[in-house]
Amino acid sequence: xxxxxxxxxxxxxxAREEKFDVxxxxxxxxxxxxxxxxxxxxALMERISDQDLNNWKFMDAxxxxxxxxxxxxxxxxxxGELGWELYPAMKDMDAVYQAIVDNGxxxxxxxxxxxxxxxxxIEKGFRGWGHEMNKDxxxxxxxxMPFVKIQKKANFIGKTAVQDMLKxxxxxxxxxxxVDSPDVDPEGDESVVVxxxxxxxxxSGCYSPLLKSALAMASLPKTFTTPGTEVEVMLAGxxxxxxxxxxxxxxxxxxxxxxxxVKEEKIKVKTAA
Length: 273
Known about the structure:
The chain has helices at 4-17, 41-48, 93-104, 114-124, 159-166, 253-272, and strands at residues 34-37, 61-66, 69-74, 83-88, 172-179, 191-194, 197-208, 213-221, 230-235, 238-244. It is an alpha+beta fold. Strands 5-8-7-6-9-10 form a six-stranded antiparallel β-barrel. The chain has a four-stranded antiparallel β-sheet with strand order 1-4-3-2. Helix 2 (41-48) packs across helix 3 (93-104). The protein is globular. It starts with a helix and ends with a helix.
């Protein structure tokens, strides 16, 4: 993907610094990627995969057959919905694609482009490499600490650095902005202004069908991250009014799956009390 060579350089650097006896080979070009996502993606995968989907949990990676050919699949989707990323060998891409199309027709299968996927990931609050996170950010500012198991006993690479960073309050945070801009949408790298002074910048943006307005993710000083705070986003040379939201406007599929469990646990606690 977009971080291919960055990751390769980093892995080579670690191998060199740690004196690991390992040889790294970049086989990216040998594999393709196809994604199926949406409420009917599970039904589709049951038809074309040899895996037991009941035991295929979120974020799990499994090797098996998809469309009759060997394929690596990961139960994850950048749309934030139920979905799978499929990684067949390049020579098998056509077979997997054809299996998807042939078996998905009666399920309402359609094709989507990267702009649609980008809109869905922003509405769900998924961070993007080169946008909310890059070589100059830690996992803290973009809100990625839930993915860092800092209590792990292992002294993994970067653990000490992150622990040191956590001792000092962060000065910035990634927030969501509803932007009043009917004629132009944010895309990222636009100035966020308060009282005529630039205080931060947008990292991603789109038109949100859910909000029926422009939506942006932005890096702002902690002073301006309270929900309801009013700022301006510079778009096409004009300051557009924007307000800080409480969080991502849409829940991911995984979060929605947990909702009944959370409600049930709350009921049990009230009953016990």
